[in-house]
Design brief:
Layout lengths: L2 H68 L2 E5 L6 E5 L5 E8 L4 E3 L3 E6 L4 E7 L8 E7 L6 E7 L4
Antiparallel strand pairs: 1-2, 2-6, 3-5, 3-7, 4-6, 7-8
Length: 160
């Protein structure tokens, strides 16, 4: 081997070694970058799961509030010695409506039941609270759907 050949071989060995070191450094950098990208993707997935859970809870809350607002009651007087008017002032229909009062309240045409009371519809409730009445509460029980859970609303009887 001549000096020129040895110099070329040594130079080419150095170039090969340099390329190998460069390739090694690039692979280490790619590995580090992929680990960071994996961590970022995992963090993003966790954040998306949390956001989805928050959105689901909010949707359930809004649905529950809408259901609670669907049927709302108002009890008003229709005049002296006349029955009270129980009105559904909500946007939904009430099913299996029952009006209950304490035993010491005088009533006319009791029991008060109606299969359906639609929005802005009402029924008359003839009740008379006397001075001897210990409890003047009128309780309305209904369902927001024919097979839904029973709900209730209580209000003091309207004085005439």
């Amino acid at each position: 081997m001549t000096a020129t050949t040895a110099a070329v071989t040594t130079a080419s060995d150095w170039i090969t070694a340099g390329v190998a070191v460069l390739a090694f450094l690039l692979s280490v950098a790619a590995f580090v970058y992929s680990r960071r990208a994996t961590r970022a993707a995992e963090a993003s997935a966790k954040a998306a799961d949390r956001s989805a859970a928050v959105a689901e809870r909010e949707e359930k809350r809004q649905a529950q509030e809408a259901e609670e607002r669907a049927v709302r009651w108002q009890l008003t007087s229709t005049g002296r010695y006349r029955p009270n008017r129980l009105t559904n002032v909500g946007d939904g229909t009430a099913y299996d409506v029952q009006v209950q009062v304490a035993d010491d309240i005088k009533v006319q045409d009791h029991p008060y039941e109606k299969e359906v009371i639609g929005p802005n519809s009402s029924m008359l409730v003839g009740i008379a609270v006397t001075m001897d009445s210990a409890d003047d509460t009128v309780t309305v029980r209904w369902r927001n759907s024919p097979d839904g859970p029973v709900r209730d609303w209580s209000h003091p009887a309207v004085e005439v």
